[in-house]
Amino acid sequence: MRARLRLGLRLALLAGVMAALFAVDTATNYEVAAAVFYAMVVLNAAPFLGRRALIRLSAFCVALTVLSFALTPKGNMPIGLANMGVSIAAIVMTAWLILKMDAARQAAQDAHAKLVRIARIKSLEGLTTSIAHEINQPLAAIVTSGNACGHWLAHDPPNLDRARQALDRIVRDAGRASAIVARVRSLTRGEPPSRTVFAFNDAVGEVVGVSRGEIERHGIELVLDLAPDLPAVRADRVQVQQVIGNLLLNAIEAIAAGPARARTIHMVSEVAGGMVGLSIRDSGIGIPAGIRDHLFEAFWTTKEDGMGIGLSISRTLVEANGGEISAEPVETGGATFRFTVPAVQQEKS
Amino acid sequence: MTGPCVVYVIDDDSSVRAALDDLLASVGIRVLTFDSTTAFLAHGMEDAPGCLVLDVRMPGQSGIDFHRRMAGLGIALPVVFITGHGDITMGVDAIKHGAIEFLTKPFNDQTLLDAIQNGIGKDRDRRRAVAESEMVRARWASLSAGEQEVARLVVQGLLNKQIASVLDVSEITVKVRRAQAMRKMDARTLPDLVRLTGKLDLDGLS
């Protein structure tokens, strides 16, 4: 809300400056090149305007310059023409430079995002490599001991003693392999949640805060509709925030992947039946029919560069905290993801 | 298995070591196992044809690094790699650097045994070649300077008469020295002598 107010204020201020410039430029002689200062307007508006809006604003400034020139009653006509040319050149050059810089910044950001993703995949690759290595050691020992056992039995007469020793080793190594599997499982299950009581909306706000840049970069409008009188929740704050961040990122990616029509994310928090819930609705590409059943499965993805673990991890985390997570398509396009965590019972406090 | 031979196994995993020890013992091959390259170096090698079974991934020095350093350490043992995680690039690289085989755990025992036999065979050939060249070198050293001169020219295809004129000695002397050289080098015919001296770097030897 406040952000919107600030944006409105800024736009009003810029409009005021433009009106003043127009008035001065029109009222003064041709020799006064007040229109040059439109470049300042363009420069100031750049940080909070999109690419297209900036081009429109620049065009509008150029139009105003020409109009002022036409309306200016007195002065030296040739100097006026030259001044107008200089002003227009200044406006156009400013806009052009801003757009160029923006494109470069965008490219740098894209490269960074890509790197982060690669690093994530690489770390998973490293993890699976070391798991494979760990498990393959006892497996190799088992296979080799099995073969040795076979050789001892094939001796004439069979060397039963050595064969039995080999079998003992096989049993021991099999136990070791299953211990490794158990350890890996406990690793991926993660730490048991350490539950604390915290204000849900604050946790949401923090995640939204760090995602703001990504949301604005994709030209997405975020509507926050957080219930003001939510009870506190009892859950692992970090894990809950991981889930929110994950769902928000998914929503952004779903919108970025689709055509640029409505670009909104709607986040609603509410309380129902002793649980606090958060729904995140996006206007993105939605959930293709037939994959809904697989949504929360590990390593199942429709994204070209995805790993298919985000939603699976989200579900694991939500359920570990005693909540539920669900997804459903939105009829007008897009999808809604909703999860709940237990609220702190009011009557106890 | 013909003659004594020994297989050295270096793997940090005790289960794998024990299993390999037993497997090789069950087919009658002498095995020595080590948990690190350092332990292997401390023990040293026996005077018998052998083969080295080397784990790729070990704490401390990796098998790959050790393989690269082996030539510098004067270890000419053929190497069979075993690894817990197969990596094609790593395997190709190891083979390029002269490894006999690159096996991913768990491996087929016959493949491993074949690779080990192959390695031992190569080591036996190499040891034989080294022994032969040392023997020839010793024989050559037993020749007098005059006999060596004559032998050198004989091998180059010169006739006795030509050798006599090059060395400025009588043809009789050449004949005597030539016969001595043939006897000392244990060469019955001229092609024999050419073959034996071929193992020596005659230009480098005096």
UniProtKB/TrEMBL annotation, chain A:
Superkingdom, natural source: Bacteria
Keyword vocabulary terms for this entry: ATP-binding, Kinase, Membrane, Nucleotide-binding, Phosphoprotein, Transferase, Transmembrane, Transmembrane helix, Two-component regulatory system
Protein name: histidine kinase
Biological source species: Gluconacetobacter dulcium
Domain Histidine kinase: 130-345
Enzyme Commission code(s) on record: 2.7.13.3
GO molecular function, one term: ATP binding
Annotated TM spans: 29-46, 53-71, 77-99
Pfam families recorded: HATPase_c (PF02518), HisKA (PF00512)
Catalytic activity: ATP + protein L-histidine = ADP + protein N-phospho-L-histidine
Enzyme class, broadest EC rank: transferase
Automatic annotation (TrEMBL), chain B:
Domain named HTH luxR-type: residues: 136-201
GO molecular function annotations of the record: DNA binding
Domain Response regulatory, chain residue ranges per copy: 6-120
InterPro entries: CheY-like_superfamily, Sig_transdc_resp-reg_C-effctor, Sig_transdc_resp-reg_receiver, Tscrpt_reg_LuxR_C, WH-like_DNA-bd_sf
PTM sites of type 4-aspartylphosphate: D55
Transmembrane segments: none
A Pfam family recorded for this sequence: GerE
Keywords: DNA-binding, Phosphoprotein, Transcription, Transcription regulation, Two-component regulatory system
Gene Ontology biological process: phosphorelay signal transduction system; regulation of DNA-templated transcription
Protein name, as recorded: Response regulator transcription factor
UniProt source species: Gluconacetobacter dulcium
Organism taxonomic ancestry: Bacteria, Pseudomonadati, Pseudomonadota, Alphaproteobacteria, Acetobacterales
